[in-house]
Design goal:
Elements lengths: L1 H24 L7 H30 L3 H27 L8 H21 L4
Helix pairs in contact: 1-2, 2-3, 3-4
C-alpha cells in the first residue's frame, strides 16, 4: 500500500512542478492577474498535498492502516477537485467551476483528519 501511495505522490509532485512552471513561463502572458493568482494557488495546494501524500505513503510503509489508505484517497480526491477545478477555472474563465473547489477543500480536511486519526490509533504502539 505504501509504495502505491508514494508512486502517486511522485506523479502528483511532478505534475505540480510542471503545471506551476507552465504558469510561470507559458501562461504568464496569456492569463490576467486574477486568473494567474488562481492558477498559482492551485499549483501551491497541489504541491503541498503531493508532499502530504508522500508523508502518508512513508507512514503506510511502516504501519499500514485503513485510516492511512483513506487519507491518501482523500488527498488525491482533494487535489483533483480543489486544484483541478482552480486550474480549469483559471484557464477557461468558467466561474461555475469554482463551485467544485470547496468539495476538494473538504476532501483535504478529511485527509488530514484521517492522518491524525491514524496517529491516535497507533500512539500506544
Amino acid at each position: 500500500m505504501g509504495y502505491r501511495i508514494i508512486i502517486s505522490a511522485g506523479i502528483s509532485g511532478a505534475l505540480a512542478v510542471a503545471l506551476g512552471a507552465m504558469a510561470a513561463h507559458a501562461l504568464k502572458d496569456q492569463l490576467d492577474v486574477y486568473a494567474l493568482e488562481i492558477y498559482t494557488k492551485a499549483a501551491t495546494y497541489h504541491m503541498y498535498h503531493a508532499l502530504a501524500l508522500f508523508g502518508v505513503g512513508i507512514l503506510a510503509m511502516n504501519r499500514p492502516s485503513k485510516q492511512l489508505r483513506f487519507a491518501a484517497i482523500a488527498l488525491i480526491v482533494g487535489t483533483l477537485l480543489f486544484s483541478g477545478s482552480l486550474y480549469a477555472l483559471a484557464l477557461t474563465g468558467i466561474r461555475q467551476l469554482g463551485m467544485i473547489t470547496p468539495f476538494g477543500g473538504v476532501a483535504f480536511i478529511v485527509g488530514w483528519m484521517l492522518l491524525a486519526w491514524s496517529a491516535l490509533a497507533n500512539r500506544s504502539s
